[in-house]
Specification:
mainly alpha, about 180 residues
């Protein structure tokens, strides 16, 4: 079904492209937000990616590879947006979570805050791999295809990203323990 829509969109069918884009827009925004960690930047990157997809769609050789190709353009748009926003600015908009509330909601908030702080410390390359693999649940070969890098590089980045995230969480835990002990 999507392959036919891609083929129609490649030949200039705006309705087919609108259908493709509408089916993916929320997911693209969620991925961009998780990579960039700023909603307004994520919105800009998503919009730029959708524009690039529309403009470059006639050059797509294999319509069955549309999603991997589209994610590659999305990640490139995120990188470009990150280059424009060299410094981090806080964004106080709350996004709905996809996980159920726990009985002790405050511990869930603290855990999410610690994870978010650790995630912010990761490089853009590492965040991209983690988001595509863990959030989108893409296998490593599809992550590699989406990023245009070898599978070994994806595995390496994922490994070092998880080590860095673990180290950041451990450092936060140690500093919190020291703060309580004093």
């Amino acid at each position: 079904m999507d392959t036919e829509l891609v083929k129609l969109a490649q030949h200039g069918d705006k309705g087919a492209f609108t259908t493709l884009a509408a089916a993916r827009a929320d997911r693209f925004l969620a991925v961009s937000n998780r990579i960039l960690r700023d909603l307004s930047s994520a919105e800009d990157a998503t919009q730029q990616a959708l524009l690039s997809i529309w403009q470059d769609l006639p050059q797509l050789r294999d319509p069955r590879r549309f999603d991997a190709w589209a994610y590659r353009l999305l990640v490139r748009a995120c990188y470009s947006q990150a280059d424009q926003n060299r410094r981090w600015t806080p964004n106080m908009r709350l996004l709905p979570t996809e996980e159920p509330m726990t009985a002790d909601a405050t511990s869930g908030v603290v855990d999410r805050d610690q994870l978010d702080r650790g995630f912010r410390r990761l490089s853009l390359d590492h965040r991209s791999v983690v988001v595509l693999h863990h959030y989108l649940d893409l296998p490593l070969d599809q992550v590699a295809d989406a990023l245009g890098i070898p599978v070994g590089t994806v595995a390496s980045r994922l490994h070092y990203a998880m080590l860095a995230l673990r180290s950041a969480l451990d450092a936060d835990a140690r500093s919190m323990t020291r703060g309580v002990a004093q």
